[in-house]
Write a structure and sequence with these properties.
Helix content is 39%, strand content 15%. It is an alpha/beta fold and 357 residues long. The chain folds into 3 domains: 12-216, no CATH class; 226-295, no CATH class; 298-349, no CATH class.
């Protein structure tokens, strides 16, 4: 099974083949209890880091059917649960492997590479960028876990270990009690897993698919119809077991079609009424732009979707009567008013029926 935190000291050939410049080896605490350690590659080569980040977050955009019976490795960090991805990949007839060397394709995500804030090192990111960080040359002596890591540094000839604020309490020390050097202002960090995956993609020609596309092209995804919308709203209003069942249905609804029905759905349901521990429902709410739709009125919906080219004739005709109801005209006793849709909207979204006499 592949490990994120694999010793990089044996990977010189991979580093050279990837063209990463200005490199060094640092130690890293790689467990929450601060009792496991590894080495990582650190570099000031921003150009290479950005290129490699794009690879690990990218998509070759080949049809998913091309990967039928191929083996896929899921890169850690996805906001989609591993179980959900595995289920969808199985529907695509793509096999799962935990061995990087056996993978034909890698399932990517935008959280595999992160930027570190306040020296809090992410243990699940396979690459990360540290801004204005520190590396420890000697941890405070006398604290048990500090002595353990100091001994590890001596035994392994590790001169520097990246400082991690999150491990401060469990180590029983803080930065000011340790001996340290400053890291370069922008320090780019590669774990062993990142180097091995990049090697397979760059040097062996393996391809990538984003986890989002695996979900979007899933045969299990369904289009939100008026009938399904009515069912969803009834289940939401019923609460209890019905709402729990709805929590399983929502992540199967496509977010790229029938935006007008999604707008209606998001205008009624509230995310806080669903489990905050369910990653799949959280992913769906985010991908379907719940917070955006829930604040948008009907007129803004039409203008925005017209502008970005996603407004359909069906969507326009669904929203227009809702917008019309909001029109207010005063002093009507002496006047007759006619409301007309603007010609540019009529031309694009209303089919004219010509009657031949």
């Amino acid at each position: 099974m592949a490990k994120i935190h694999e010793d990089v000291r044996s990977m010189n050939n991979i580093v050279s083949s990837l063209g990463i410049a200005s490199t060094d080896i640092n130690g890293m605490i790689c467990s929450g209890d601060a009792l496991s350690y590894t080495t990582v590659l650190v570099s000031e080569d921003e150009t290479s880091y950005i290129k490699h980040q794009e690879i690990l977050e990218g998509d070759n955009e080949s049809p998913i059917i091309n990967y039928k019976n191929k083996k896929a490795f899921i890169i850690p960090g996805s906001s989609i649960t591993a179980d959900k991805l595995k289920m969808e990949l199985k529907e695509h007839d793509i096999k799962i492997t935990n061995d990087i060397d056996q993978a034909d394709v890698f399932i990517t995500n935008v959280m595999s590479c992160q930027t570190v804030n306040d020296h809090n090192i992410p243990l699940r990111a396979i690459m990360f960028n540290i801004e204005n960080g520190y590396s420890i040359t000697e941890f405070e002596q006398g604290e048990r876990k500090c002595d353990i890591i100091n001994n590890w540094m001596t035994d392994e000839s590790i001169e520097h270990v990246i400082w991690d604020n999150r491990r401060s309490e469990v180590l029983g020390t803080y930065l000011g009690s340790c001996e340290y050097d400053s890291l370069p202002y922008n320090t780019h960090v590669y774990t062993g897993m990142a180097l091995k995956i990049l090697d397979r993609i760059v040097n062996d020609g393996c391809e990538t698919i984003t986890g989002d596309r695996v979900m979007d092209e899933s045969p299990n995804q369904q289009i939100l119809t008026q009938s399904l919308l009515d069912t969803c709203l009834q289940m939401y209003d019923a609460g209890g077991d019905d709402r729990s069942m709805l929590e399983k249905i929502l992540p199967t609804i496509r977010t790229d079609v029938n935006h007008h029905l999604l707008w209606r759905l998001h205008g009624t349901i509230q995310e806080y009424h669903f489990s905050s521990r369910n990653k799949d429902i959280k992913y769906w709410f985010n991908k379907s732009q719940h917070s955006w739709y829930s604040r948008m009125n009907a007129e803004d919906f039409v203008k925005q979707h017209d502008e970005d080219g996603t407004l359909t004739s069906e969507g326009f005709k669904y929203m227009e009567p809702i917008i019309r109801k909001a029109i207010q005209i005063y002093n009507r006793e002496l006047y007759v008013f006619t409301v007309r849709i603007k010609p540019e909207y009529e031309k694009k979204y209303l089919k004219k029926i010509h009657v031949h006499r």
